[in-house]
Amino acid sequence: MSAATTGTEAEAQTPPGLLTAKTVVxxxxxxxxxxxxxxxxxLSGATVVxxxxxxxxxxxxxxxxxxxxxxxxxxxxxxxESVSALADAATEAAGGIDVWVNNAGITRxxxxxxxxxxxxxxxxxxxxxxxxxxxxxxxxxxxxxxxGSIVNMSSISGKVxxxxxxxxxxxxxxxxxxxxxxxxxxxxxxxxxxxxxxGLIDTDMTRAMPPDVLxxxxxxxxxxxxxxxxxxxxxxxxLASDLSAYITGTVIEVSGGRHI
Length: 260
Ligand SMILES: NC(=O)c1ccc[n+]([C@@H]2O[C@H](COP(=O)([O-])OP(=O)(O)OC[C@H]3O[C@@H](n4cnc5c(N)ncnc54)[C@H](O)[C@@H]3O)[C@@H](O)[C@H]2O)c1
What we know:
Order of helices and strands: HHEHEHEHEHEHHEHHHE
Radius of gyration: 17 Å
CATH superfamily: NAD(P)-binding Rossmann-like Domain
Number of domains: 1
Strand content: 5-15%
CATH topology: Rossmann fold
Number of strands: 7
Helix content: 40-55%
Bound molecules: nicotinamide-adenine-dinucleotide
CATH class: Alpha Beta
Number of helices: 11
CATH architecture: 3-Layer(aba) Sandwich
Structural class: alpha/beta
């Protein structure tokens, strides 16, 4: 967990009240960016349904959130039944879904010469099929209530392409197309669909990089620092809230200006 996850400075920057009386579902929120997003949304007043393929981590996250009524639920985003059950559980427990974040993700990095078809399809399944199933289930429920906000986690990797990530870059670019097409389909029902493309973010993944490689990459960031999980969570909070009421089908880059 990064310093920003628990740091009082980042906590103080999270605006209270933006999501009062709103119910938010976040997939893959058992750890990492999703967990911090759950915390930021809860700090801003939301009831959060924390979903993860790992039930224990989902329940742990839900238990750590400020406020009451949060729920930890098992959900495999690649399963139609599982995603549908998550939408039902959230509707039943909280009376309806206002915000749904498709955040669950995996990587299977390898150069193409060594990448198997299984490595390729596993990544496409979790990101593209997972986001599609989530967007479909959430928008169906939201349109019944007159609106809602869906946030999809893409990546700068889907914009510029990364060697060793042909599967992940394809999936993250696919999420952008899915976001724009879905936004056009459901706008007339008051449902907004947007995407976030994080860049270099302080997570377990970047902490595992050799320090010199990490420093070189940070040197390419115009704002001169690595991003925090809370930087990403705040973009999600903005897209989730009514502050972004006139914004749909867009992609917000949370990259400190790298790769613009
Ligand atoms: N970490 C970064 O720097 C970075 C940068 C750009 C984009 N992203 C994207 O942000 C999202 C979160 O990344 P992270 O770094 O927090 O990842 P992470 O690996 O720390 O967490 C991902 C979570 O998703 C869950 N998950 C995996 N497969 C699942 C499935 N089939 N169903 C439900 N849950 C599943 C995992 O159990 C885990 O809790 C991902 O979509 C990732 O691609 C991350």
